[in-house]
Design brief:
Elements lengths: L9 H11 L8 H13 L6 H8 L14 H24 L18 H12 L2 H8 L9 H7 L17 H21 L1 H21 L27
Length: 236
């Protein structure tokens, strides 16, 4: 098992959570999980240069105070990519997908942060996701995710239920969301592979003009070394 495919330990999740907590606008771990799930199962592979800053809520990567040094920056990227692969790996191999949910003060895993972040991930390629919304046979895969995503909507007309969601229904929606991610991943599989092939062709063409060294800054602008960013080997 390569380093980037090694599952995070509880201590490493705590470390990643503390890094994200540096910014009041950053996603929490549950949000990152939902956001990544949407990016991974969606119609197109999205590069770190596009989504990393969104994780920080628009702040500089590393929060308001930035990184203490390059080693800490590399540590964050390793942790975040290992979590990405903990989602991508099971989906690509057909294993069960389990969302990473945080419990509230009452010990309840509500799933709203996860689903809202999943919806944010869809917005990055909203036109492409429209294909699934318009597919009468498969659009139901999105129903439990969107139900949780809109449960706290400021507009009451957008909320899925007039009454509060009870524990049994919430569990059904969470299980349905997990199953939905697997179904969506399969739905977009052929389209994602075509997009990935086109992207690789473009990458090869760019590299033929100038080869980027593994220890050079990544040309995507993330601030990381190429080998730790777009040059990293990850599971898709």
């Amino acid at each position: 098992m390569t380093a980037l495919n090694r599952p995070l330990t509880d201590a490493e999740y705590d470390r990643l959570g503390s890094m994200l907590a540096r910014s009041e606008r950053a996603m929490n771990l549950e949000m990152v999980d939902g956001f990544f799930a949407a990016l991974i199962c969606g119609p197109e592979t999205i590069p770190p240069s596009e989504y990393l800053r969104l994780i920080w809520g628009g702040d500089r990567i590393g929060g308001e105070k930035g990184w203490r040094d390059e080693a800490e920056m590399q540590e964050f990227f390793d942790l975040i990519m290992r979590h990405w692969n903990s989602i991508a790996g099971p989906l690509s191999s057909g294993d069960v997908f389990v969302p990473f949910l945080l419990e509230d003060d009452d010990g309840v895993a509500r799933g709203n942060d996860w689903a809202e972040a999943f919806a944010r991930g869809m917005k990055l390629r909203s036109n492409d996701w429209g294909e699934l919304f318009d597919d009468e046979k498969h659009a139901g895969l999105l129903v439990p995710i969107l139900a949780l995503a809109h449960e706290r909507d400021p507009d009451p007309t957008m909320r899925p239920y007039k009454e509060p969601i009870d524990a049994e229904r919430r569990e059904q929606l969470i299980v349905g969301s997990a199953a939905g991610v697997v179904g969506i991943y399969r739905y977009f599989a052929s389209r994602r592979h075509v997009a990935a092939g086109t992207s690789r062709e473009r990458t090869i063409q760019r590299r033929s003009e100038r080869k980027v060294g593994r220890n050079e800054p990544c040309p995507c602008g993330s601030g990381l070394k190429f080998k730790k960013c777009c040059g990293a080997v990850t599971v898709h």
